[in-house]
Amino acid sequence: MSPESTGQNEHYIRVLRRRFRAWRGHRPFWAGLFTMVGGIPIAYFPYASMTLGNMTLAMSTTAGAGSLIIGVLLITLGLTMWYHSIVRVFAGVAAILLALISIPVANIGGFVVGFAFALVGGALSISWAPGKPESADGTPLAEHPDEERSEGGLHAAAVPRQQGSGYDLAVDTDGGGHRAG
């Protein structure tokens, strides 16, 4: 191998990690993960039994089917957040509502563990917003000051100010030479 070949020397784990990081960055990953983790105890605890020596403790309730439905729906909503991020607000609201419904139905929301995870996952899904694309000159939009991103977008920052013309082009909002404000 020659030292000029760049892609062949890279380890496959590093490539997979970079691909996963890129995949994770375009969707509400943590919201979906928290929602799915919240659905597991809500669905599991009503059907679980614990053995202490010769004594078996069963935590099953009459609402076991409701708990299973709520848990499966939360897991489905978590997967929806990952693979269809366009409906993230609906999935977040539905996850919060299912978490609230799980308190009376599913053993106090999976002993508060599932309730808390589903509530946080739904809130993260509602608050997640996709990243902004970079501007044409290669500088990310987040690096521009807020005053440059006014009604005209970044156009005002790109127009040079002319000295002595009676008005500034950077403040010219309607294109007719009139000052704003």
TrEMBL record:
<dbReference type="InterPro" id="IPR046096">
    <property type="entry name" value="DUF6114"/>
</dbReference>
<feature type="region of interest" description="Disordered">
    <location>
        <begin position="135"/>
        <end position="181"/>
    </location>
</feature>
<keyword id="KW-1133">Transmembrane helix</keyword>
<dbReference type="Pfam" id="PF19609">
    <property type="entry name" value="DUF6114"/>
</dbReference>
<protein>
    <submittedName>
        <fullName>DUF6114 domain-containing protein</fullName>
    </submittedName>
</protein>
<feature type="compositionally biased region" description="Basic and acidic residues">
    <location>
        <begin position="143"/>
        <end position="152"/>
    </location>
</feature>
<feature type="transmembrane region" description="Helical">
    <location>
        <begin position="28"/>
        <end position="45"/>
    </location>
</feature>
<feature type="transmembrane region" description="Helical">
    <location>
        <begin position="86"/>
        <end position="105"/>
    </location>
</feature>
<keyword id="KW-0472">Membrane</keyword>
<keyword id="KW-0812">Transmembrane</keyword>
<feature type="transmembrane region" description="Helical">
    <location>
        <begin position="57"/>
        <end position="79"/>
    </location>
</feature>
